[in-house]
Amino acid sequence: MSRAVSGMNATFFYVAARPGGGTSLGFRAAKSRPALAEQLRKEKLLLRKSYVVPGATAPDRGLVLGDQAVLNEQLGQLLSRGVPLIEALEVVAQTVAPGARPRVEKMREMVAAGSSFSEAAHTAGGLDAVTVAIYRAAERTGDLAGACKQLSVTVRRTLAVVGRATTLMIYPAIVLLIAGLVATVMLVFIVPKLGEQLESAGEKIPWYTTAMVWTGRMLSDNMILVVPVALAVGFAAFMARKRVLALVIGVTQKLPLMSELVMAQEAARFFAVMAAMTRAGVPLADGLATANQAISHKALRSQMDRLRTKLVEGGVLRVLIDQVEALPLATRKLLIAAERSGDLESAFNSLAGDMTDEVERRSARLLAVLQPALIVVMFVVIGSLLMAILVPLLSMGSNLGK
After folding, report:
1. Same domain, 351 and 366
2. Pairing between strand 23-30 and 58-59?
3. Strands 23-30 and 8-17
4. Does 317 map to a domain?
5. Pair 156, 350: CB distance under 8 Å
6. Tell me, what DSSP letter sits at residue 292?
7. Boundaries of domain holding 46
8. What is the pLDDT of residues 99-151, one digit of tens each?
9. Is 12 strand, coil or helix?
10. d(CA 232, CA 239)
11. Cα 318 to the center of its chain, rounded Å
12. With the C-alpha atoms ordered 8, 11, 16, 18, is the resulting torsion angle positive or negative?
């Protein structure tokens, strides 16, 4: 039995026995086989066999957004009603997904042993630095329940943004994949046979049909080499998916409609984090240092980092905000007005909600544009093959008629 790499999580396929009889099968991430057995034991399952899934070893990715939303929602509700933190964590451990349960239980054990909640969250892992910093600040102000409620709102907004982004990526990917598969089948199996029939009939084949027939024959005759190469390219793309995704994001940030959508997504994430940081009592400069880490847009990140640096050096906030040209003018004016009135928390919260709604609107608009654009792409991909086949056939039919 192979061991998982130290500090890494391996994906196991497990076979476990149920308390009342029967067998449970599934996949589970764990650092080792004993850790997997302990996870299943807490769910009243007895591990019988386990196998490491080849190639599934990966760095620990922490709690997913759904588990973070449940964690913060439950803590916010229970703590605001006077439930002790240890008991609240015990309840949360039963409501999160099985994969997140060990982390929450470790938090509860550390809090019961005398550790602060922020320290327990940091040690248990799975939460980003922004969330831990908010917990730490909330403990100093004594409003951990309020911070958890604000974080749950922030995570829900992030989930909405991520959901729209995922839809925008999956929809064209599926359409292009189908078009590619149909075109490949036609090119490899149909076009060469029609080319042979046209050649045997003594018909003059156009140059583009000849090119299509030659390509199809080459792929068909070298299938033993083509398939492994295609699989290798696909595997390489999967392994380098982070770089590929970063490249795609970099390109989309420059496209007309996508650039506005990406900026709205970045702004929604930034203002949601700043609302939570401000609610927890984190100083503005410290909050900016943490919230800027959530920005991936280069221009906005650079300008917000410069704002924080100038603010620490003694700059006037309203003047510095007006210099962040990556943000819309209306957004900057609202922040300046909120800074003058001393109500930045409400402004951040309001802007986070507005930007999330803006993402919804821009996503719907972009999908409306993508649908006819993808139809055109499918026509170009598949239509070119159909034309290469139909034009010689029509010419042959015309000659026969004469």
Report:
1. yes
2. unpaired
3. antiparallel
4. yes
5. no
6. G
7. 8-59
8. 788 889 889 999 999 999 999 988 887 788 778 888 888 888 888 888 888 88
9. strand
10. 10
11. 34
12. positive
